[in-house]
Specification:
heterotrimer, C: 642 residues, five-stranded mixed sheet, four-stranded mixed sheet, 21 helices
Chain lengths: 285, 334, 642
């Protein structure tokens, strides 16, 4: 894996840009661990101050320093995205490898379920869960629900790779050597699907954070918890843009674009890496 | 031909399974909802009016009888399917006694119209540009186009829609920012009405198109740039086949197959996008209906919107799947 | 680039450009939205209706409950009428007395000696829009039909109270009540809404009035339906040819030929649309939105010419404790929570300082400061509570002045300096934040402090949720209240809910930020909310509580006051005295913490129409969804040359 990253940084400018962007955002988000203010408190600073030396990102109409507010928001959103991605990766790897390697009716059943999950529109379902759970829908519950719906695309991708691996020489050797199915999958096949897992990890984060933003701006989440979505929710409920508190919208949007673009570039360039032909072309071979 | 028949049968089965499982899951989730529709209606009625406590008590009794909320779950589930198969999902609670299905049907043309046109426009432009960009890899125009769409693609729908609203509604107010059509036109197949509808749908559609373009562009560009290195393309080039034939008939056509599969997969996602778009632009449709219904605790309508969207999305996927064999001879043969 | 790909490219571009051109053309032809070519602005007023999308847009029958129809879409503002209107503000001079209008009635209500019978004289010469004369038969039908039909809005009220209703002659109605009720006329007195009179000739032929859509509606107001949006987002009403034959027309001619009500407009869009001239009246905006739009557009006005702009609704926002929850049984705990709050922080957080505070359980609006706040000011200043350790005088009469000084930095001359003006705009005073006194009260109630967390007498931490709505000033107020408590060792957390009204009704909350007090506004009588405070109406936990006693407060002394009020006339001056008794009882018990008036940022644009009501000319309530606002249309005039 390390060699892969080195190659990517050296030969793929998109990967490098993505890494820098995501790196900046991760550092920014981690700053909230050293935040001098509690981000859930309101009216701790003078409201509506534009960005200045004292308040780098200005303050919002709720009297919060946007710098620390956003830092906490990005921390929470990134953690949320990672939680969803990790959980849904577990499902998609399990399903993908099992379906690809075992084949037969296991494959058919798993892929049938997979197709159902692909086809169900997720947003109405999420809204429905909010409808039922209301304020019991905290970020972890939401992460769980999203994870349950975030795996099918990727499971299918992993399955297709696993299908190819199944007939490879080394698999047969391993099976003859008496390795259990679990061992074959974990030790022999998993490393091959890691690039896909990595790239879909980023894509999944994009998707889940986007979903969180969407739900939050409608007010369908716990809006006391600072996240990217709830920052925008509050900005809206104070008509921030139309009354001229532009920094309350513009700065988060810039940061969101940076984050999303960064994650996206990482995913795309990793995807390209998986396909050796385009990689070779890029390296000038 | 028989192969095609099996293919269709398999896909149709999947569609039915999706609808069955999806709808059952939804029924279960709404059934478990702690919200009592009767109290919801009462709350709406008596807010700000001077109803006597006696009046409220007698109204409550009447409402409970009407909504049938007291029955056991299996009975409600069975009734639900019976009614669903007749196209009847019960009376909406927020517009009692209008059938929930009627509300959905009123919103559906708007949502479907927005979804369909924006998806088609996005698909065509995105793939065309992506294909050309993949083939003419050094063309500056396509490169610039790629950077712009790729920059837009990862941004959440809501933000793009909101920025468009601010620009065209506030900073440079040239386009209508709310409603489905103007107040001085009457619905009907008349020119002014159609123009008014188009004009009102411009901003919502634009936001959907802008966000959607990037995905197709990137996908198509990657596919085409891979295909052009295939042996058969090199062979065709060496054999002196015209370049436009190569682009059109050999490269784009082959690259389109996975893109059509992908189309089936994004329809559900685009549907989520339209919900947001409708909220931002006060556009009539199923999305805003769903949000209203959730806030009003109207579970008949929530169920109806969800059922119809699951069915519609499953059906759309089925249709796209049917197109698949026409493009890809390998599927036809299978 | 070779020929074919060039062609593909150019065709695509050409198609795009053609499409763009077509649309640009469409736009030239249609003008900017909304398209009002048919509705010249000097004849048309456009009103913002705060309802969401109307889900049953073709339904105009107001006598069926919960049909999903629009109400404040012009229907209850322009086409309905009943016997009296009571204005939340002063009322049009000459047309109303003491804020009471005789609308379909020709005179005030006439009760017999023991309030068991009421006689009403009706106006003559009023016609429905289909040329049928309005008579006493319509009133009798309205009462009898609703009393006999469950599912109509006044079914319970009429069937429980009315023994017999008759029409001795064409223009007289006589009610015999089942038991004496000196407030029976309030069922027919509009405060937001009331029992609207039904057109007998239309509804007597309808078999099931609950499934009758009344499209188009027969109107007894000066307007009839012109057209409406089948998607439920706008309604257009046209002035009747015979507008003189309506009660409103008898006051003055309504000026606009067309009135358009538009609903489902988000806060940001409202601001954009009024600035673009596509709205004349906006129901409400955020405080920030109002401050910014009155600056951007000098033609736009609020209720006050300067800060705080907002119109005070006769509604009192408060922290409501659930009295059926064991945590809030002790009045010392409720008082401690009140003394922990900081009036300035609450005013700044919710209204950016534009709040009208009230420490007593009467809204500081309409004529109430004259009847309650000013006379009780000395009582409040000398009010003393015993914390168990010390005696404190918690009232701060100058907190309004301090807030005025705080906002003067930002708004300068827009903030009044005259003491009376400041008191009317910012309130007569509130409790001084007094943490030591609050802690003494908690200690006296058996609470102990463990680190920075107060523990209840049973040893568990004192934590509870503060329920707030999703948006608006009440949301902000609730968040700052929860935060202030949390900072002082109470485990209070704000909980946002989309359905606070539903949960409040069934008592599914611990502390709720909402209003449990609403009054007529222009009239000192408090029965509008107080009657429902009677302990006979308090519901079991989990069951629905009838309107307004959301805290489910029970007190025999309270019942006694309520019964005394029921026994006197609406205009009896003793009513104010009993009102004072109520205020003092409330202070002693502190069942909820009154905070401020629910101020609504209703704004109007003078671009096309002028003559809107405001604090100096307070002839009507500008809040557009009140039915009482109809009189505005008789007072406005088109702006010349606009």
């Amino acid at each position: 894996m390390f060699a892969v990253f080195r190659d990517l940084i050296r030969y793929n400018v998109e990967f490098a840009i993505g890494l820098v962007l995501v790196g900046i955002m991760v550092i920014f988000a981690s700053l909230s661990f050293f935040s001098p203010v509690d981000p859930s408190m309101i009216y701790m600073a003078i409201p509506d101050q534009p960005p200045s030396a004292q308040y780098w990102f200005g303050t919002n109409s709720r009297g919060q320093e946007l710098f620390w507010q956003l830092s906490a928001a990005f921390k929470n959103s990134l953690i949320f995205g990672i939680t969803v991605a990790v959980l849904s990766r577990i499902i998609s790897i399990t399903v993908g490898l099992a379906a690809g390697y075992l084949g037969g009716w296991v494959d058919r059943v798993l892929m049938f379920i997979n197709d159902i999950f692909v086809a169900v529109p997720i947003f109405p379902i999420l809204v429905l869960f909010y409808f039922v759970l209301r304020n019991n829908m905290d970020s972890f519950t939401m992460a769980l629900i999203l994870a349950c719906f975030g795996w099918p695309f990727d499971a299918r991708l992993i399955r297709s790779v696993a299908l190819g691996l199944k007939h490879r020489e080394f698999t047969r050797h391993a099976v003859f050597a008496g390795m259990s199915t679990r061992k074959v999958l974990l030790e022999e096949h998993l490393p091959y699907v890691m690039p896909i897992v990595f790239s879909t990890f980023m894509n999944n984060m994009l998707w889940s954070i986007g979903m969180e933003v969407t739900l939050a701006v409608l007010g369908f989440t716990n809006i006391n918890n600072p996240t990217i979505g709830t920052v925008l929710y509050w900005a809206n409920s104070h008509s921030a843009m139309v009354v001229g508190v532009w920094w309350w919208i513009v700065i988060p949007v810039i940061l969101i674009v940076m984050t999303f673009l960064g994650l996206f570039l990482l995913a795309v360039s990793m995807n390209e890496y998986i396909d050796p032909r385009s990689r070779l072309r890029r390296m000038g071979a | 031909m028989q192969g095609y028949f099996y293919f269709v049968a398999k896909r149709a089965l999947l569609m039915l399974a999706v609808i069955f499982f999806g709808v059952s899951a939804m029924f279960l989730v709404t059934y478990l909802s702690p919200i009592d529709p009767v109290e919801q209606v009462l709350g709406r009625l008596s807010a700000r009016s001077n109803l006597s406590p006696e009046a409220i008590a007698s109204t409550r009794e009447a409402l409970t009888a009407m909504f049938g909320t007291g029955q056991p779950m299996l009975t409600q589930y069975f009734n639900f399917w019976t009614r669903l198969l007749q196209g009847d999902l019960g009376a909406s609670l927020m517009a009692f006694p209008t059938p929930a299905m009627e509300l959905v049907m009123r919103g559906m043309p708007w949502t479907l119209g927005l979804l369909l046109t924006s998806t088609v426009i996005t698909f065509i432009i995105g793939n065309l540009m992506g294909g050309l960009a993949g083939y003419f890899q050094n063309n500056r125009f396509f490169k610039a186009f790629g950077i712009v769409t790729m920059g837009l693609q990862p941004i959440p729908y809501y933000i793009v829609a909101f920025i468009i609203l601010i620009i065209f509604g506030f900073l440079w107010p040239v386009l209508p920012i709310s409603g489905g059509f103007g107040m001085d036109v009457r619905p009907g197949w008349t020119m002014p009405f159609i123009l008014s509808v188009l004009q009102h749908s411009l901003l919502p559609a634009l936001s959907l198109v802008l966000v959607g373009l990037g995905g197709w562009f990137i996908g198509m560009r990657a596919l085409v740039s891979n295909i052009v290195t295939e042996d058969y393309v090199t062979y065709a080039e060496l054999a002196g086949v015209k370049r436009d034939t190569i682009v059109g008939a050999y490269v784009m056509r082959n690259a389109l197959v996975p893109q059509v599969t992908a189309l089936a997969m994004v329809i559900g996602g685009v549907f989520s996008g339209t919900i947001i778009t409708e909220q931002v632009f006060n556009y009539p449709g199923m999305g805003s209906l769903l949000v209203d219904a959730v806030n009003a605790g109207d579970y008949s309508t929530v169920l109806a919107v969800c059922t119809v969207s699951i069915t519609a999305v499953a059906f759309a996927i089925f249709i796209v799947d049917l197109l698949h064999p026409l493009l890809d001879p390998r599927v036809r043969a299978e | 680039m070779d020929r074919r790909s060039f062609l593909i490219g150019t065709t695509a571009l050409g198609a795009l450009m053609a499409a763009g051109k077509g649309l640009a053309f469409a736009q030239d032809a249609e003008g900017s939205a909304p398209d009002l070519t048919q509705f010249p602005r000097n004849e048309t007023v456009i009103v913002h209706n705060p309802e969401g999308i109307i889900r049953n847009p073709a339904w105009f029958n107001l006598w069926a409950v919960g049909a999903g129809n629009g109400t404040s879409n012009g229907l209850h503002n322009l086409t309905t009428d009943t016997l009296w209107f009571i204005d939340p503000d002063a009322g049009v001079e000459g047309a109303s007395e003491n804020a009471v209008y005789n609308s379909l009635a020709d005179d005030l209500w006439q009760y017999n000696e023991d309030f068991s019978e009421m006689t009403v004289k009706l106006k003559q010469g009023i016609y429905w829009s289909d040329d049928v004369e309005f008579t006493a038969d319509d009133v009798v039908f309205t009462v009898q039909k609703q009393a006999a039909t469950p599912g109509t809005p006044y079914n319970g009220a009429f069937s429980n109270q009315v023994e017999e209703v008759t029409a001795p002659d064409k223009y007289t109605v006589h009610f015999k009540l089942k038991k004496p009720n000196s407030r029976f006329h309030t069922l027919f007195s509009v405060r937001w809404t009331a029992a609207w009179i039904m057109p007998k000739h239309v509804y007597e032929g309808v078999e099931d009035i609950l499934s009758y859509d009344a499209n188009p509606p027969v109107s007894i107001g000066p307007y009839t339906l012109h057209s409406f949006d089948p998607n439920g987002t706008w309604y257009i009403w046209e002035k009747r040819e015979d507008w003189q034959r309506t009660a409103m027309g008898m006051i003055a001619e309504p000026k606009p030929k067309y009135v358009i009500y538009r609903n489902n407009i988000s806060t940001d869009n409202r601001l954009i649309e009024i600035r673009n001239g596509n709205l004349d009246m906006v129901h409400d905006l955020t405080p920030e939105g109002t401050f910014s739009v009155v600056q951007q557009d000098p033609q736009i006005q609020g209720w006050f010419p300067g800060f705080p702009y907002a119109h005070p609704d006769p509604t009192l926002v408060m922290a409501i404790f659930n009295h059926q929850n064991p945590k809030f049984q002790d009045k010392r705990v409720r008082w401690a929570l009140a003394l922990m709050l900081d009036a300035r922080a609450m005013s700044m957080a919710s209204y950016r300082g534009a709040a009208t505070l009230s420490a007593i359980s009467v809204p500081p609006t309409g004529t109430h400061p004259r009847d309650y706040h000013a006379p009780l000011q000395d009582f409040m200043i000398n009010y003393e509570i015993d914390t168990g350790t010390s005696k404190v005088k918690p009232y701060d009469p100058n907190v309004g002045m301090q807030i005025a000084d705080m906002v003067r930095g930002q708004f300068g001359d827009a903030v009044p300096t005259d003491e009376t003006a400041v008191r009317n705009a910012f309130g007569y005073g509130w409790w001084k934040q007094n943490i030591p006194a609050a802690e003494e009260l908690l200690t006296a109630a058996g609470f102990t402090k463990n680190g920075n967390q107060w523990m209840q007498p049973d040893g568990t931490p004192f934590t509870f949720s503060v329920m707030v709505p999703q948006e608006g000033v009440v949301n902000r107020l609730g968040v700052i209240i929860a935060q202030t408590w949390a900072q002082n060792g109470i485990g209070a957390q704000a909980e946002v809910d989309a359905d606070t009204w539903g949960r409040q009704r069934v008592g599914n909350y611990e502390c709720n930020i909402a209003w449990a007090v609403e009054t007529w506004g222009g009239h000192p009588d408090l029965s509008f909310f107080m009657d429902s405070y009677h302990s006979a109406y308090v519901a079991e936990p989990g069951a629905s509580q009838p309107d307004r006693n959301w805290m489910r407060w029970k007190d025999p002394r309270l019942d006694e006051i309520i019964e005394k009020i029921r026994g006197i006339d609406f205009n009896d001056p003793k009513g104010i005295e009993y009102g004072h008794d109520f205020v003092k009882l409330h202070l002693e018990e502190m069942p909820n913490i009154p905070i401020m008036a629910y101020n609504v940022f209703s704004i109007q644009s003078n671009k096309y129409w002028t003559g809107w009501p405001n604090a100096e000319n307070n002839y009507a309530n500008p809040v557009t969804n009140w039915s009482n606002g109809r009189y505005i249309f008789t007072q406005i005039t088109p702006v010349a040359g606009a």
